[in-house]
TrEMBL record:
InterPro entries: BUG, Bug_dom1
Family stated for the protein in its record: Belongs to the UPF0065 (bug) family.
Name of the protein this chain belongs to: Tripartite tricarboxylate transporter substrate binding protein
Gene3D superfamilies assigned: Bordetella uptake gene, domain 1, Periplasmic binding protein-like II
Signal peptide: 1-24
Keywords: Signal
Length: 337
């Protein structure tokens, strides 16, 4: 009678090992790694836009700090650009193709919230796993240096006289730049729905359009136009924050200081795919926190005029959800949704 018992015990052990092995295999195959072992391979940061814009700059500066400080040990971090539909192509890939994988991250922000809302996308930033908000940046309204527009008041008066003669160049339709244009026009008492807005897929394209005169006024983050402003090729009409920004020792006017009750801040964040295991999520938060606390990242913020806007985990998740609701209401009010 002892022999059947031995066979039964052996069979039970085999089943137990098989179940355990399948569970481990599922974790490995469905997320590219066993839960809780981040980083077990190289990390990829997706930029859901063309090179040259604010997301791209944020990702590559982040990559620089990680590599400089060896925050992933011997693991490498790469940056990949995925363009299309104001970030919709990139976030769709993150959500549907990289589920559970903590080694694929994405830079996002207010621009994407606005674009996805406008396009009534079935996928939103809230479908990701927010790791942290990183920075906030004022928008800046610029014209080429030989433009007849000398002040923000000149721009508003031109728009009030004939909206069709004012073209506004910036990022995605419904994004931060577009929202800034509409917010200013609304604050001036004019009709935001008549804003003639031209969207460019990257900061490089927008810069070229402003300098060539293809658009009347350009809108983006200060860091994206800083080189051209410093070189005297662009003139600042106003920034969009509460406090005035300083460039080359000169204080720049804000929309409010120019007499218009308007304010917009462009925030950026880093997110992971949905369903990242809790242990990996915490490791990602710890990893991003180390970047944020480094002197190198502080210097990058200062250089680019970025405000420290660090929120992690549940705080970041709540903030992004609230921003999504706010932008939906704002875009309806501005007549662009």
């Amino acid at each position: 009678m002892s022999r059947p018992r031995t066979v039964l015990v052996a069979a039970g052990l085999a089943v137990s090992l098989l179940v355990s092995g399948c569970s481990a295999l599922e974790k490995t195959l469905d997320g590219g790694s066993v839960a809780g072992d981040f980083p077990s391979r190289n990390v990829e940061i997706m930029v859901p836009a063309a090179p040259g814009g604010g997301w791209d700059l944020t990702a590559r500066q982040f990559q620089h700090v990680v590599q400089e400080k060896k925050l992933l040990g011997e693991r490498a971090v790469s940056v990949v650009n995925v363009t299309g539909a104001g970030g919709a192509v990139g976030i769709s890939k993150l959500v549907t193709k990289n589920r559970k994988d903590p080694h694929t991250l994405m830079i996002t922000g207010l621009v994407m919230v606005g674009a996805l809302t406008l396009n009534q996308s079935q996928i939103t930033v809230s479908d990701t796993t927010p790791i942290a908000t990183l920075t906030a940046e004022q928008e800046v309204l610029v014209v080429k240096s030989d433009s007849p527009l000398k002040s923000l008041k000149d721009l508003v008066e031109m728009y009030e006289a004939d909206p069709s003669k004012v073209s506004w160049g910036g990022g995605t339709i419904g994004g931060t730049d577009h929202i800034t244009a509409g917010t200013l026009v609304k604050a001036a008492g004019a009709d935001p729905s008549k804003v003639k807005y031209i969207s460019y897929s990257g900061g490089g394209e927008a810069t070229a359009a402003i300098l060539s005169g293809d658009v009347t006024v350009g809108i983006s983050g200060l860091s994206e136009f800083e080189e051209q402003i410093t070189a005297g090729k662009m003139r600042v009409l106003a920034t969009s924050g509460t406090e005035p920004a300083t460039l080359n020792g000169k204080q720049l006017p804000t929309m409010k200081s120019e007499g218009y009750d308007a304010e917009v801040q462009n925030w950026r964040a880093i997110v992971a795919p949905p369903d990242v295991p809790a242990a990996d999520r915490q490791r990602l938060i710890d990893f991003v926190t180390k970047v944020n606390q480094s002197p190198e990242w502080a210097e990058i913020r200062k250089k680019n005029g970025w405000t420290d806007f660090f929120k992690t985990g549940d705080d970041a998740t709540r903030f992004i959800a609230e921003e999504t609701t706010r932008v939906q209401a704002l875009e309806k009010e501005l007549g662009i949704l």
